[in-house]
Hints:
By secondary structure, this protein is α+β, with helices and mostly antiparallel strands. 35% of the residues lie in helices and 23% in strands. It has a six-stranded antiparallel β-sheet with strand order 3-2-1-6-5-4, sandwiched between helices. Strands 8, 9, 10, 11, 14 and 15 form a six-stranded mixed β-sheet that branches.
Amino acid sequence: MEKRTPDIAERHPGGDGQHDIHRRIAAVATTMRDLSRAEDPQTMARVYLRHLRELFPCDGLVAASRRDLPSPHYRVTRSTLWSEDFNPWIDRDRLPVLTGGILGDLLYGDEARVIDDPEVAEDDPAREHLAGYRSMVAIPMYDQGRALNLLVLLGRNPGMFNAGQLPDLVLTACLYGRASGNLVLARKLEEQLTELDFELKRIAAVQRAMLPHAVPSIPGLQVRGKLRTARRAGGDYHDFIPLPDGRWAFIIADVSGSGGSAAALMAVVRTLAHAGGLEQPAAWLAKANTHFCDAGIKPLDFFVTAFAGVYDPATLSFTYSSAGHPAPRLLRPDLPRSQRHLLDGVLGLALGLDESEAKYETATIQLKAGDTLVLYTDGIVDAPGVTGSPFGLKRLDQAFLPPEPDIAKQVTKVFELLKLHSGGRLPEDDQTLVVVRVH
């Protein structure tokens, strides 16, 4: 006749089923609370095994895993035989790898079983963990549709376990296995995110290093520029580059998208800008377009908008060309607001989209005292507000009314208005503003 373990009501005379149910619910709730507090898988394992032995008393246990091992190999991951508390997630290489025997058969058998009076052969590789026990229950822990781990509870006396316990044992073991697996994945994800954040910080630092380190001293001009990235790093770029003949080149560019990939292409734009050729803005844009088309950034869903201009302090002339970039504003104090100028007469194709169809032209305007040039990326005018409406050119113009003697204050004012417009939310796109005023 099959032996069985007396149920709780039989082991506690006078107890009733209702009392037993409440006691078990309380024990399970305690177990779940303690498991939820665990911050690492090893702590969770200790909590689970302690509570498991309270719910299902046993004299010993051994655990095995075939994860990342070919059949029929497996590792013994835990055993009451060991005095040292190994961490199978860290000490994997220190854990013995075995083949065959009762543990191997149970693990690869893929099913829960109760065994009384197990016959452990002398040459069984796991004999030291199983010898002396008269009953055992094998609890598979399923992952990816198969038992990758196995927990075996051991008893000194036969009949300590019965088949009626198997559903609860398998369910709790698999729930624990899933919870610990999720915790392992969460920790790996946290490590990867930390590493990614570190790399993005370095990329952002490199990007800042590629932007102007100081405000240039240009005869007859006040110049200020500011970048606010949507992420740690972005694809906006601006620069002021002195030319050999005393003129100055201004450039503002915007790589589509944001983040590390956009910052990488931004570095290419800077390299091209400092390689020379900006004396002729249209020719430089054509050369940059050829470079990006040859590199094949279009299939990667990247393109670059850019505006390049050359200022001559001797004549106050400004010669410029554009590759799909938002047209800069020319604000003149003697013009009504309805007649603000857009430098939009030479709009060419964005860089990297097409080489054969791209045509870039130049135009020249004559600046005079009090003129203010406002160069910007679309992250400013397209910035959505709390109601969904974009910031727009009208709000950008209003930021320069009345004109401040110090343009740094007006740059600050633009970004304060942007923050107010968006309700304090982080920008969805990189935002760059460059302001140039003629003395």
